[in-house]
Amino acid sequence: TVSSVKIRQRAMDWRLLLFFCFTGGILAAKPLLRPPHPSIDKFENESTVISCYTSETQETLIWTAPNKSLIPHNVGRIHFEKRGSSSILLFDHIQYNDRGQYTCTSESKETAFVKLNVIKTSQFINTPKEHRVKEYQSTLIRCEVDVEPKPQMSWKKDDHFVDVSGTNYVMEPKGLKILNATRNDTGVYTCRAIQGSSDSSYIQSIDITLKVQHKPEWKTQTTDPVIAYGYIGGETNLTCEAVAQPEANYTW
After folding, report:
1. What is the residue range of 164's domain?
2. Boundaries of each Ig-like domain copy (predicted)?
3. Which residue has the higher pLDDT, 226 or 99?
């Protein structure tokens, strides 16, 4: 019985020795993240910071990128900075290729992980900034984006939201359809693409000028003859003015 106690005591001594050798006599503290989320969503060209900290103020914390390379200290578009017991990972103008899992590692080899999800921002394609249609014809003002998933689209005309629930305007996947366009539909239309993430949103917009083509009409409507007076040896101005799209040419 005595010998068995000694054997157990020796085994315990070896475990204590190994514990003191590898930890310095204290339990290794696991790094923690702030914000404390396993993944974050960010849009391209945004900037963000992730803080990694530990209760052991003397421990050095380092960061590694998704490709296992070390994140540089204090330099570069992506770098980390030491602030007290924290290691701050900074992203400036996030790019799509920055996505992936980043690892914060302490001297005692304890780790914390965070996954960066990068959302591509919408870019307009096949979207002319000027559009023309003949009066009383229907037309489609094109506005397309090259990002997936497709963002929520909305339209404004002269800074007022377009009512797509009526009979004049119809929302379509490739743009805004105008039925039986009239001169009242002339104006500046704003196409907006709205993207959302877990904690933010991104709005991209483009202005499109719509011109409704119509035949010339006299600006002053009258059935009476227009009389102009002049003086011998003097000058007078004869005005002939019409409204048209495109602008009218005049002959005398």
Report:
1. 123-214
2. 31-115, 122-209, 216-252
3. 99
Give the E-state strand segments of the chain in sequence order.
32-34, 39-43, 48-53, 62-64, 78-83, 86-91, 100-105, 111-119, 124-125, 130-134, 139-142, 144-145, 152-157, 160-161, 169-172, 175-178, 187-196, 201-218, 242-245
User: Cα–Cα distances in Å, from 171 out to 1, 163, 182, 207?
Assistant: 88, 10, 18, 17
Radius of gyration of the CA atoms of the chain, in A: 35
pLDDT in tens, 193-224: 999 887 778 899 999 999 999 999 888 877 77
Is pLDDT at 188 greater than 70 in this prediction?
A: yes
Number of domains forming the structure of the chain: 2
**pLDDT given at position 21:** 43
Sign of CA dihedral 227, 228, 229, 230: negative
245 close to 212: Cβ distance less than 8 angstroms? yes
Give the rounded distance of the alpha carbon of 61 from its chain centre: 32
Task: Calculate mean pLDDT across residues 165-176.
Answer: 92
- Considering the domain architecture, whether residues 76 and 142 belong to the same structural domain is answered as no
Is position 251 within any domain?
A: no
